[in-house]
Amino acid sequence: MSTSTQDVIQMDKDYVMHFCTRQPVVFVRGEGMLLWDAEGKEYLDFLSGIAVCGLGHCPPAVVEAIRMQASQLMHVSNLYYVPQQPELAKRLVKLTGLGKAFFANSGAEANECAIKLVRKWAKENRGADKFEIITALGSFHGRTMAAVTATGQPKYHHGFEPLVPGFKHVEYNDINALEAAVTENTCAVMLEPIQGESGVFPADRRYMQDVRSLCDERGLLLILDEIQTGLGRTGRWFGFQHYGVVPDVVTLAKTLGGGFPVGACVASDQVAAAFQPGNHASTFGGNPLACAAAIAAIDAIADQGLVENAAEVGAYFKQQLEGLKARGNDISEVRGVGLMLAIQLGRDDAASISAACLQQGLVVNAIGNNIIRFLPPLIVQREHVDRAIQILEASLG
């Protein structure tokens, strides 16, 4: 198999659907905080495969768990008991304080599960006309049909109409807009604690608490999409822990598998009881291999103190970004919590700045015209931040 940059780019053009605008780099190896391309050039990764590689690249504990499990049993289907499933579910239930877990293969699938679950619960407990779900403008919940409909960004809807009925989008961080949107048909509210894909916009603490109160008062369920924020990224195990609220349903993926595809929908016992055999399923979801990887990832996050590291190094990183802003680098705002951060630029050249960083060996993410997002692995240290800041400042100049 050829790994030369030009050969791979040409083969991709010839045989792969054009679904993504890629950077002209072919990564062939990763270890910890570092990536190497086909020509042997080294890069410092401050994107983590869009928050997937929270333990860094090829974390030894996850690699070993995958190796061991792959040599024993990879898949049998959910027609049979899979011992790794309850082991993983037990960890997630204890961490979230909820009741039961369902396993999928991605964040979009986890959100599809959550949407079906709350509708099923509402029909059984509140009436057949309770099906509407309110989400936020600027949100991102996935690419499958219900998940993309839930996503509050019209650019992702174009060309796929008619969308799934029963969704409303309101302004984020505006409790009055949310309250005004609730009708007798509403069954749930679905939010991200921090909107990541649209530019790293955290929910206000008072807003999230008011949302929880509104849901309680009106008999609505609260779904929190923690696919990007969950498993330590914000300096807590889950983003909702910053707000002093507990959701009825939480969705997870990305960091959950330590680089391996796995998603989860975790719900309270009361809500989870709405699913009965045949209501929902996944052929691959919760397979022994994926669960083994996720168990190893969660245990490594705990054993290595990575939640605490995300809080500590994240605060240092944000401080350094504020320093860049203070030095007049045309940065209008620094946003985020823990290791989920972004800078808002005063000019529309995020793509060129991201490309300049890549050229100098730093992987970051341009969002829209004027936002740079940072999602480094949870293992990041201060010296990595210092190197990233140096490259970023040179690129901003």
Q: Which descriptor suits the 3D outline? A: globular
Q: What is the CATH superfamily of the largest domain?
A: Type I PLP-dependent aspartate aminotransferase-like (Major domain)
> Major beta sheet, specifics?
7 strands, mixed
Strand % is: 15-25%
How many angstroms separate the termini?
A: 39 Å
> Helix/strand-derived class?
alpha/beta
Question: Helical proportion?
Answer: 25-40%
**Total helical segments:** 13
As laid out across the biggest beta sheet, the strand order is 4-12-11-10-7-5-6
Work out the radius of gyration.
21 Å
Topology-level CATH name of the largest domain: Aspartate Aminotransferase, domain 2
- Rounded mean pLDDT is 98
Topology pattern, helix = H, strand = E: HEEEHHHEHEHEHEEEHEEEHHHEEHEEEH
The total of beta strands comes to: 17
CATH class of the largest domain: Alpha Beta
What's the CATH architecture name of the largest domain?
3-Layer(aba) Sandwich
